[in-house]
Amino acid sequence: MTFIKFMIAAAVPLILTGCGGTTADCARQDMSWRWMLEGNPGSAGDSVWVTEHKLYPTDGEGGFLSVEGAGAGEEMLCSFEGRRPAVSLLQAEDCFMFTVPAEGIRDGSFIELDATFGTDADAPSHYRFEYMDRTGWKSTGVSCSGSGDISTGAGAADTYQYTTVLGTFRVGSLPDDGLLKIRCVASDEDALKGGGTIVFADFGFVAAEIKDLGTKVPDDTLRVLMLGNSFTYFYGSPFMLKEIAWKEGLALDIRTNLKGGQTFGDHLSLSLSEKAVKEGGYDFAILQDQSQNPARFCADSVKYRTVMDNFIRLAALIREYSPDCRIILDRTWAYDGAGHGGFGDYGSFDKMLADGTSMLAGAVDRVITAPVGEAFTECRERYPEICLYYDDAKHPSEAGAYLKACVEYAVLTGKDFGPAPADCWLPEETASRLRSIARDVVIR
Predict the structure, then answer these.
(1) Nearest-CA neighbor of 144 among 181, 96, 179, 99?
(2) Number of alpha helices (DSSP H) and beta strands (DSSP E) in the chain
(3) pLDDT tens digit string along 354-380?
(4) Are the CB atoms for 9 and 36 separated by under 8 Å?
(5) Going by fewer Cβ within 10 Å, which terminus of the chain is more open, N or C?
(6) What's the rounded Cα separation, in Å, for the pair 363 and 309?
(7) Helices 372-382 and 398-413: crossing angle, nearest 10°?
(8) pLDDT in tens, 150-182
């Protein structure tokens, strides 16, 4: 598939804006900005969100998220739901806006905008994505819809879904004010219900990220479906995968649904997973089951028969809409937390995960195993100073998320990394070591 055939953008109902002031106010040190919201609300920075409707990035200088009203109807309300920045009372043409310093971003550059947000049933359901050039706002031709439910209670499978956006677009001639402005506008054609709420995801999702990818056009494009849970979304591993591939000359057009704790059976019931699958036309699907399920199936394939059944059903549904799709099944990692997942030690847990994943992969044609767990084991032995785990000794750290993305890139392409790879916020030496691990366990 050539790059020209690539749908080069995705939409977001949330927008990051850098400084609303002068270029001098927006001095920065790099071309990346990230919002990853951890801790308790109530800081000085958080109060600016409530009073001035601005939210500053956790990484990167000189940018912030803001909201802007169209001037009609009730004024928007900015608040916090737990740690999640929220906006209520949106009306048609209200928007979220990102403005970031544009010095060094050349005309014709590709911009990556990734975001994770949720909407309730009363919020606007459709949004359009635009950027500002020298002549005014330009449409990217891309739209997105909200998740429709951000409640936290138990109940229906759709409860507490987020929309994940991985959008790439190319800017034309940027304004002379030294700022890149991107906005996402509530664009429902029907009358809005009013009173609805939209929120950014809190930690370990990455709430939003903007990167300048440069002007080079990728050599090729793959369309990829990703379905998983917190082992996939921690620290934005799909965002990392997309950046890694881009730096290697490969554009990934990714559609995804990620929700904590989900099994393959759960994804069969999630509306956003079903919607993503039915878009179809995928070259690859990267699937990640609940972290203990393959090991449980290996230990007792009768008791946990549904693990296999649900994988077969999900693979069949994907192939119904993408007949030529190759499926990549993540073999996840053993961890210390919860008594090594209930399997006693790293070695036992690792073996059960490896054997169980192989059993699942062998039951469906054209399934490839991504040896992420093997890479974790190799890294623990070779570079024990690199911490691959979050504080709970289970989820991936930033390094673990990057290692996962590197393994998936190597499996997708079968290729080594080039001379100018993406480090994705990690120290250069750490990123290099992790890429060497991915190279060794996949390409050998």
Answers:
(1) 96
(2) 12, 19
(3) 999 999 999 999 999 999 999 999 999
(4) no
(5) C
(6) 10
(7) 130
(8) 765 444 566 678 999 999 999 999 999 999 999
